[in-house]
Amino acid sequence: LNGKVPADFDFSRYLSEKRAVINHALTEIIDRNFDDSRLCQAMSYSLMAPGKRLRPILCLAAADAVREPAPESPGDCPENAAEADGTRTCGDILINAACAIEMVHTYSLIHDDLPALDNDRLRRGKPTCHVQFDEATAILAGDALLTLGFEIFGSTAMLEPGSHPGVLIRVIGILGKAAGYRGMIEGQMRDMAAEIRRLDLDALSRMHTLKTGALITASVTIGALLGGGSSDQVRFLEIYAGHIGLAFQVTDDILNVEGDPDRMGKSVRTDQQRGKSTFPGILGLDQSRDFAAELVRNALQVLDGFDNRADPLRALASYVIDRNR
Ligand code: IPE
Ligand code: IPE
Ligand code: MG
Ligand code: MG
């Protein structure tokens, strides 16, 4: 699967560099905005726990895949022209969007772990938010991270010189829809219902596409839009993301069966205990692996028309199924 990525592309370095960018930006947002209240402590506890940052990295990588190469010096960047203090860079809107996505994702994890949903005690290698704090605080910390994502993106985006309001409003709509009742939340509802009534393969794929695929697709689409991609490029990247979003959740199901809980930082073998509908449950492990690999091949094919700026997206597609956490 890695055949299409040049051997000299250092993916693990790419991942750790982008992860550091996201972690730095999240830390800055926290330092600038949070106080020492119990609510802020709970928000920061879950947000800064060691997540993979896959969705914000996909957002940055999608922008890189379509964006014209950066100008030689920051002064050449039109978005920076009005900035006298030199603190702002071309990518501020993009980084804020990526951080907003990670906040929405972290909220979804906090709520997913609650006793009323999956009732999990371990997340990102630490006690879940409701175990570390309490259930009411965890619910509210989730609510607050969800809304903070939109606040951060909305408030900074409008200030950026040269930014196009139409694109920014579209981004807000895409994120809201992906996270909402026709996206992730509907997927979570179907996941809960499927504990009682078994799903067939099609229904399971649709459920995964909503609960996990929607936010992954939004991450890529938002990156492509903010990177200035053409409508064709955005459309192709959306299809790419649909494939890897489903592959990601199929792999999550596989890791729940055979993964190492220490490495993953969350409990394993819980899906079967709770009677969840999963890919390994319906197809078995081998066929689930084959299916995930086929999805990644499809994703790579969609990138055929893109040049080497899409190499990170190519490597990320393989990473989605080769990961061990
Ligand atoms: C876990 O997502 C929840 C799913 C949608 C399967 P990740 O595996 O991306 O979790 P973190 O962000 O790395 O903790
Ligand atoms: C989590 O799905 C999906 C969302 C948080 C929206 P799972 O419940 O399958 O993922 P894990 O295994 O708890 O991370
Ligand atoms: Mg769940
Ligand atoms: Mg869960």
Describe the sheet with the most strands: 2 strands, antiparallel
Shape: globular
Low-confidence stretches: 75-90
Residue fraction in strands = under 5%
End-to-end separation in angstroms reads 19 Å
Helix content: 55-70%
Structural class: mainly alpha
* Total of helices: 15
> How are the strands of the largest sheet arranged?
1-2
Order of secondary-structure elements: HHHHEEHHHHHHHHHHH
Computed over alpha carbons, the radius of gyration is 19 Å
Distinct ligand kinds: 3-methylbut-3-enyl trihydrogen diphosphate, magnesium ion
* Total number of beta strands: 2
Overall pLDDT, averaged?
92
Provide a short characterization of the protein structure.
With 325 residues, this protein is mostly helical. Helix content is 66%, strand content 1%.
Tell me about this structure.
It is a single chain. The chain has 325 residues and is mainly α. The protein contains 15 helices and 2 strands. The chain has helices at residues 11-33, 38-47, 54-66, 92-112, 129-132, 135-157, 165-179, 184-193, 201-226, 231-258, 261-264, 270-273, 279-283, 285-302, 311-322, and strands spanning 122-123, 126-127. A two-stranded antiparallel ribbon has the order 1-2. A hairpin with a 2-residue loop joins strand 1 (122-123) and strand 2. It is globular. The relative contact order is 0.13. The model is unreliable at 75-90 (pLDDT under 50). The structure holds 3-methylbut-3-enyl trihydrogen diphosphate (2 copies) and magnesium ion (MG) (2 copies).
